[in-house]
Backbone:
């Protein structure tokens, strides 16, 4: 997979002595705008991430994409950069990107979401457990929730109890990572700690159904599922933004 071109603004944030590039797309019209801190999937800044870097602003959301692969050697393919990630470093980078986003005058602090697909869904959970500033967390089929990146670190699943915002999840029943049983465990843990959540499960969808650039392509059922999930997500985000008391917003 090749890195895609990202138009829009780019800033560089210093995290633990290293410069991380962060890409920003601003929707048309006057702000402040609701915003999404978008966690990319294993493919990094590829065609899939570029797609949502355009689609979220079209829906009215200021979109901020931190490049967690900024310290990956240049000769390593994007798909293989995941092995360089560690949870303690990623949480610091999520925090820095969120603080930058919240410092922007064109961002509506009452409507600030963290979202991601696959690995990015895992990171959306992780960010919500460690940075209590989000209106809601949106996770599309977050894989690897029961694993840690770095010895001695708790898994995102083990940290679910720390989430302070609603969680919106979208999962395919034909998926194996996470499997339907994994999703049951996620939901049971959210219920255990009284965390508001809405899960959508799609019986004819497998892993990556929301990726328009998926190498093997998508069948008609998955394309229809992707469209339905996108519409449901936007409805949930709009409702959360309209009712910040229910969204349990923590700013700062």
Residues:
């Amino acid at each position: 997979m090749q890195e895609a071109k990202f138009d829009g603004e780019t800033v560089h944030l210093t995290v633990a002595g290293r410069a991380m590039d962060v890409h920003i797309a601003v929707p048309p019209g006057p702000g402040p705008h609701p915003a999404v801190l978008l966690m990319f999937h294993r493919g990094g800044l590829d065609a899939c991430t570029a797609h949502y870097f355009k689609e979220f602003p079209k829906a009215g959301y200021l979109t901020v994409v931190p490049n967690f692969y900024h310290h990956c050697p240049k000769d390593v393919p994007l798909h293989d950069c995941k092995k360089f990630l560690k949870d303690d470093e990623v949480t610091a980078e999520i925090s820095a990107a969120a603080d930058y986003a919240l410092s922007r005058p064109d961002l509506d602090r009452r409507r600030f979401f963290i979202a991601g697909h696959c690995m990015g869904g895992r990171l959306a959970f992780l960010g919500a457990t460690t940075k209590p500033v989000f209106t809601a967390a949106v996770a599309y089929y977050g894989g690897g929730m029961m694993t840690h990146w770095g010895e001695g670190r708790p898994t995102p699943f083990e940290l679910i109890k720390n989430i302070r915002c609603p969680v919106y999840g979208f999962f395919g029943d034909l998926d194996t990572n996470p499997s339907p049983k994994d999703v049951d465990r996620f939901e049971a843990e959210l219920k255990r700690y009284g965390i508001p959540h809405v899960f959508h499960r799609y019986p004819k969808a497998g892993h990556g159904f929301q990726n328009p650039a998926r190498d093997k392509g998508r069948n008609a059922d998955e394309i229809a599922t992707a469209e339905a999930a996108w519409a449901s997500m936007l409805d949930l985000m709009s409702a959360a933004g309209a009712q910040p008391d229910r969204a349990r917003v923590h700013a700062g």
The chain has one domain: 9-241.
